[in-house]
Amino acid sequence: MTVGEEPTAPGPGPTGPEAAASVPPRLRRDARRNRERLVEAAHAVFAEQGLEAPLDVIARRAGVGNATLYRHFPTRAALVDAVFRDQLTETMEAGERARGAPDPWTGLTGYLDAVFVTLAADRGTNDLMTTRLPDAETLGAVHAHNRETVGVLLERARAEGSVRADVTTEDLLFALAALGRAVPPLAVAADPDAWRRPLALFLEGLRGPAREPRPLPGTPLGEEELGQVLGEMGPHRARPADGSAAGDEA
Predict the structure, then answer these.
(1) CA-CA distance, 136 to 51, in Å (whole number)?
(2) Mean predicted lDDT score pLDDT of the chain
(3) Residue 191: which domain range?
(4) Close Cβ partners of 134 (under 8 Å, ≥ 6 residues apart)
(5) Same domain, 91 and 204
(6) Are 13 and 76 spatial neighbours (Cβ–Cβ below 8 Å)?
(7) What pTM was computed for the model?
(8) Both 69 and 48 in a single domain?
(9) Residue 93 burial class via C-beta count within 10 angstroms: exposed 0-12, middle 13-18, buried 19 and up
(10) Contacts 24+ apart (CB under 8 A), 111-114
(11) Is residue 6 part of a domain?
């Protein structure tokens, strides 16, 4: 048995409340402590290597065996949800505040600024923008909420005239995703707030110029097309259907 790994029963035993009652309090405390160590280690490793980091690296960082990791988090999606739940919730709350802003332009730009502050935190949070993990319920809910929020804020700004009329939600989400992926290299090459200049430049480009704006070239992306493109922009490590990454070990 690996050091730090909870012992397992040798065979079938009681289940449900009866099983919980049969587990000594010390073992339950050990299990909780191992879970906390795994979440802390995953946050650190994801921050360094991104969401494609091998799960066995996280287990080693936490000082437990791979079996312990998979007992607490059967899939990568479950681990991502546990690690980033608070940050994802804060992003959704920022969206709700932006919707209530009296000025549409301030609401839109304030929300995008809050999103980019999150993206600039580390590689793991940056990956959240484009990573699609079907079983990550919290992450999926935030992606859906983000799209809805951007759509609502953009519509308000278009109706007021502060944003050019031909910009679509998909246009904005695609451009922001592309710019967001540049945040980590900008932080390394310049400083942690270097992303603010290109974001400000992009946002100013959304405003209608003094003269009649030129039509945007091409056809706007549809929602399905946008999802496919963003999926391709995410981490490119080959990943099996169970959500594990190359180098993950059961």
Answers:
(1) 13
(2) 79
(3) 84-209+221-233
(4) 77, 140
(5) yes
(6) no
(7) 0.72
(8) yes
(9) exposed
(10) 111/149, 111/150, 111/153, 112/176, 112/199, 112/203, 113/199
(11) no
Specify if 94 maps to a domain: yes
Residues 6+ apart with CB under 8 A from 248: 54, 55, 56, 76
Is 12 inside any structural domain? no
| Distance separating alpha carbons of residues 112 and 163, to the nearest angstrom | 14
85-142 tens-digit pLDDT: 888 888 899 999 999 999 999 999 999 999 998 888 888 888 887 777 878 888 888 8
Burial class (CB in 10 A: 0-12, 13-18, 19+), 10: exposed
Our count of domains for the chain comes to 2
